[in-house]
Task: structure prediction
Amino acid sequence: MKVHALVDAALKAYHLVVPPKIDREIRRALRLPQPDFPHSITLPANYGRGMTERVVELLIARLTYQAGKHVLDVGHANIMNAHARMLKTLPRPLTITGVDIASPREEIRSLYTESVITSMTSTNFPDESFDLIWCISTLEHFGMDNSLYTTQFIVDQEMDLKAVQEMIRILRRDGTLYISVPYGKYENLGWLRNYDQARWQQLLAVARPVSRVSELYFKYSGEHGWKVARPEDLVDTGYSDHDNAGASGLAVAIIHKLG
Result:
């Protein structure tokens, strides 16, 4: 419990201080043309130095967004302030549903059209309910020790695979599922897993039969910030290899469900 309390305090302090810098970095990146997205992405030089993977993840979320589409945000209860500010600035009309096993605070809940408390492995959403699904740094917690966030959790090492299957079910044809996870060498840290290539491809295999999958990889260095990488550049990368209060490697999948 003492470890969880310290982690919680550190996260709260981080959320207050660093996210405004994340906002500025994302605006800097959005000024660059991205003609080949989602197959590739261009980041500015020295992008996100001293910042967590959110500086990459929220940029990609913004690039996937189109006004008027029905969005599902998976794991919304404990979003960072930078994530909340992004929601406030998205072009309207915005219809966005949040889903989580934990209950969000009212100031977070108010950002969503609807907030649903349920497991992502077995929702009651009808087939093909959403045009766009965001699953941003969430799957690594599925089936892990989530006592930091709620007492209502199940330990199940297959839960992330089941969740992807469910997200594909509720994604509309021609819709987009965006997944990001910490990536490098496999690590089970209790409260999250750091994915390696084998586990990551096992996850994507759930979606491939009915989808077109684009993969992007990123690596953090203290000197240069976040840079686009290859999977082989990250094979020895652990979650906490760098002092940026988050992951050191990141894997992203942009999954387009075939019509």
